[in-house]
Amino acid sequence: EGSWIVSLLSIGALFGPIACGLLVDRYGRWKVLMGSALPIAAGWLMIAFAQSIGVLYAARLLHGFGYGLAYSVTPIYLGEISSDAVRGSTGVLVTVMAKLAFLLQYSIGPYVGFRALAWISLAFPVLFCVAFAWMPETPYYLLARGNDEAAASSLRWLRRDESIVSELGRMRKLVEQSKQTTSNPLGQLFARTNRKSLLIILLLSLGMQLTGINAILGYSQTIFSRLALPLSAAELSIVLALVQLGSVMLPTFLVDRTGRRPLLLLSTAGSLIGLTACAVYFTLDNAGELSPEPGAAHGWIPFVGVLVFIVSFAVGLATVPFAILGEVFPKHIKAMANTVFAVITSAVVFSVVKLFQVISDGAGTYVSFWIFAGCTAVTGVLIYYIIPETKGQSFERIQEIMQSGKSGPNGAQHSEAETMPYLPYPFHVRSAVVAGLLAFVALLPISLEAEIDCNSLRMGQFLCPDPSLRQIDPHTQQLYGCTKENKARAWCIAADGIVCSETKNASFTRELPCKWTNGYHFDTALLLSVFLGMFGADRFYLGYPALGLLKFCTLGFMFLGQLVDVILIATQVVGPADGSAYIIPYYGPVITVVRSNNWTYRLPQDNW
């Protein structure tokens, strides 16, 4: 009965994504999200008044339905309301809130009755409905419904900015492209152009759950009760939840800075280390090699191993897939893609959670942990070969990467057989069921293309900076991160047919020249020179107090010095005293002095 209470959540979650796929494009993201709170609230009410195990089963099914519905539509909603710069961070907040809920249940659950816990938990879906009622519908959905005015109002509210014409135009173009496609989203999902995106989602959904995360969290007190530690299982679970919450907050700040691939690979490696440590411990414990006395030094090994696994899993595998899910599919099949992702995830979660207790009781806990470790190792290898980097990319650019065939060196399109080779080696794990699932993933065609170091590209082979990204700081009118050495790293885009080894796609970073600024505006300096130059205001502003004082005492050298300074500042010969450049619009009247030297002058040749 205990295993069914844990695992029935996943059965209910199978139907939530299906409902999402049917409703989200018809009624909108906002209404579906509001509706997802109803089965969750109903489930807590049933638990509060339950008089039999059957009512608890039904409540868990309702919770699963609401969970599956919310988890399917939330990445769509967040992906469509977020700007390119923070879309990854908002995507991983889903998992941050989930871990906060784990901490709440672990901290309150062991010390109150389950009915009291139900009443406490009921407050949260109610609070969600009250707070979310003030949120807008997504601009993409409103544009798809032809309500341009409401879409502009929604985007203006979300950006807190009136300058939305350019972004709204890009959204409208993407929506129009989606409308031109076939009305069969399921057929489009399995189309050749979306094969790579589908493979990515399949890999991430299987990889997340085959690490055993839900089984370990669901049975944490059962696992910890077998350890020879002075702390109680409930106390260890609270520590575990605190570590989880702290860990999942890291990707919120890192996912849009370090990228998706590094976090996923780091997460997989750390998870493998933690699971292997637990597997070795339980193997030795099952063989009778360890002392069962409470307080034994080795008793901390599996707990630390679980903590390492939880931290590592939270850094990437728990959060990044939700950010990627909102990016790799076009709008018209995004709901169907979320449905497939959630259905696969729910099915795997049910299998893992239900079989964990059966395998642990029948063969030993160490067998389950060895299976999880093997699956995690395979997941890491597949992530390395398959997952591309989407950091800093716009929706439009990501769709080009996912759907467009890459050109060959002569401009010819590669055939499917050339661009979609099979993985060369089969992978084996100890569980026959898990091996069958992973073999299916491994045999799907994936795109492996030739890679080069894009920093060695020549002029004409790349565009830098990438014009589709916002890389100009509005405060300095220079590239973000411009240093005093007048250099900054910017995102560039390679020509068609070129894949960069740095990011596994056409984007790469390159060091570009820039002009370091320190708050001195060109228009301010020129206006001060023209109207108040006789009092030295321009020189005081630019950091030349001695000259400013001299002009003040002599009325700008009887206006002659004022005229000279107007010319010098207008031609940008005189600049700020600290050596910084003027803040001038990036495409404004910037004067660059080119001097004749060994780099700019070529001596005439006899054969000219």
TrEMBL record:
Residues 1-391 form the Major facilitator superfamily (MFS) profile domain. Keywords: Cell membrane, Glycoprotein, Membrane, Sugar transport, Transmembrane, Transmembrane helix, Transport. It is a multi-pass membrane protein. InterPro entries: MFS_dom, MFS_sugar_transport-like, MFS_trans_sf, MFS_Trehalose_Transporter, Sugar/inositol_transpt, Sugar_transporter_CS, TM2. One of its GO terms (cellular component) is plasma membrane. Transmembrane segments: none annotated. Coiled coil: none annotated. Gene3D superfamilies: MFS general substrate transporter like domains. GO terms for molecular function: trehalose transmembrane transporter activity. It is found in: Cell membrane. Pfam families: Sugar_tr (PF00083), TM2 (PF05154). Belongs to the major facilitator superfamily. Sugar transporter (TC 2.A.1.1) family. Trehalose transporter subfamily. High-capacity facilitative transporter for trehalose. Does not transport maltose, sucrose or lactose. Mediates the bidirectional transfer of trehalose. Responsible for the transport of trehalose synthesized in the fat body and the incorporation of trehalose into other tissues that require a carbon source, thereby regulating trehalose levels in the hemolymph. PANTHER family: MAJOR FACILITATOR SUPERFAMILY (MFS) PROFILE DOMAIN-CONTAINING PROTEIN, PTHR48021. This is Facilitated trehalose transporter Tret1. It comes from Anopheles albimanus.
